[in-house]
Write a structure and sequence with these properties.
Blueprint (H helix, E strand, L loop, with lengths): L1 E3 L2 H13 L4 E6 L5 H13 L2 E6 L19 H10 L4 E3 L3 H4 L18 H4 L3 H16 L3 E5 L3 H13 L5 E5 L19 H6 L1 H15 L5 H12 L5 E10 L13 E9 L2 E9 L3
The structure holds pantoate (PAF).
Length: about 280
């Protein structure tokens, strides 16, 4: 396995692979890899001849008030995990390699980015769409792998690929959880032990939402109210949003009469965590 820092090095390797008729899977990440990421790498390794993992903390998807500087980074640990899971190449560019002086072209999207995380993080999806487009242009993968924990991001990228006729299959992979239910996230490292315990309110509340739906409740207002009340029992939790939206358009629905995403973002202390589940009538 090789680690490269420049776009030219990636392109030279990809050119050779393509000449040899190899299929390519891309796993875009911001590093500090955990089992959520390695499940994406495993899926790519299983279904492609070559797997590229990008490790890049993308500055343009963070607002000035967010955690760009403190975002955890450990490229040695990431390289070891990538090697153990059979990846072939890590692309770990510096910000100046991705964003040359005078960079001024962005990929933006309306509608799907207007609710959920897009509402609380207004520039976030413009940054994600732009960097993912650049990574797609650099790596030119056949398949690209994203986690369902970032369900809105996955829907946005699928939609972008469709809108812009990108010849890439976007594959969503299931959320990986700790044994007690907390969704794996690089940001979990910010939590103190007391906050780590409090963070279980997210998965517990999703379980409550699922139970209400399986007991026949279809009024999203009633479900959201019950979930909100449950989160409010945890003193360290502060709700950013709890919403039920159409799975494709990411627009809120009043009634569950189509496939939906039930998603939440909750601050535990200063750490903003997200989690979700999807529901589709059997
Ligand atoms: O999900 C992430 O880690 C990032 O948003 C992504 C897709 C790698 C783009 O920077």
């Amino acid at each position: 396995m090789k680690l490269v820092k420049t776009i030219k090095e990636v392109r030279d390797i990809i050119k050779q692979w393509k000449a040899d008729g190899q299929t390519i899977g891309l796993v875009p990440t911001m590093g500090y890899l955990h089992e959520g990421h390695t499940s994406l790498i495993d899926e790519s390794v299983k279904n492609n001849n070559k797997t590229v993992v990008s490790v890049f903390v993308n500055p343009i998807q963070f607002a000035p008030t967010e955690d760009l500087e403190s975002y955890p980074r450990d490229i040695d640990h990431d390289s070891a995990l990538c090697r153990d899971h059979g990846a072939d190449l890590i692309f770990n560019p510096d910000p100046s390699e991705m964003y040359k002086d005078g960079f001024s072209t962005y990929v933006d999207m309306s509608v799907l980015t207007e609710e959920l995380c897009g509402l609380s993080r207004p520039i976030h999806f413009r940054g994600v769409c732009t960097v993912v487009t650049k990574l797609f242009n650099i790596v030119t993968p056949d398949n690209a792998y994203f986690g369902e924990k970032d369900a809105q991001q996955l829907a946005v990228i699928k939609h972008m690929v469709r809108d812009l006729n990108m010849d890439i299959k976007v594959v969503g992979c299931p959320i990986v959880r700790e044994t007690d239910g907390l969704a794996k996230s690089s940001r979990n490292t910010y939590l103190s032990s007391e906050e780590r315990q409090a963070a279980l309110i997210l998965s517990k509340t999703l379980k409550l939402g699922k139970e209400l739906i399986s007991n026949g409740e279809r009024n999203t207002g009633a479900i959201i109210n019950a979930m909100t009340t449950n989160i409010e029992t945890e003193p360290l939790a502060k709700i950013d949003y709890v919403k039920i939206v159409d799975s494709e358009t990411m627009q809120p629905v009043n009634k569950i009469d189509r496939p939906v995403l039930c998603a939440m973002a909750v601050y535990i202390g200063k750490t903003r965590l997200i989690d979700n589940f999807s529901f589709k009538e059997a």
